[in-house]
Automatic annotation (TrEMBL):
Signal peptide residues on this chain, from the entry's feature table: 1-24
The species this protein was found in: Cupriavidus campinensis
Protein name: Outer membrane protein assembly factor BamE
Lineage, uppermost ranks: Bacteria, Pseudomonadati, Pseudomonadota, Betaproteobacteria, Burkholderiales
Keywords, ordered alphabetically: Signal
Amino acid sequence: MPIPFSVRAARVALLAALAAVVLAGCATLQPVQTAQSMLGSPQSAVRETFGNPTETYQLADGTQRWIYSKQPYGYEVYAADFDAAGKLTGFRQTLTEKEIYEARPGVWTKRDIAERFGLPREPVQYFTLMKREAWSYRMYMAGNLPAHFSAYFDDAGVLDRTMIIMDSRGGDRSRSK
């Protein structure tokens, strides 16, 4: 006995919805891998896949960066880079030791840190005796060890130093969900 058209259409619609959920899950669980397959795609495709960015920056070289921050409870900040034509050229997790070690004390400013790691979602602290403002981010070090990355700025807004401190309380990766 043939399946009625309405039941068949409902099955097709259900399968299409399931495929959309699976694809969205891939983008959530493996954002870097998902975005790497999208290189060359327009901004609209990136927005459809990852949603609205938490911040956007027009960079000095004419390119644009979108920040996707999972802070303050998550441990990741992703940067999506677009060329002048609005095509995706790169997507990476920026809260890594490699990225942090590229910061240049005495040269970088608050704007440079924000463009790389996004604005802090933890409360900004000011240390009166040091005369330094501190921005803090949660991150994972090698081996999935929870830590905090802090950037310290002088009163002129110039980066003075960076610091990575292990989280002595440990961490639970499930908090980032």
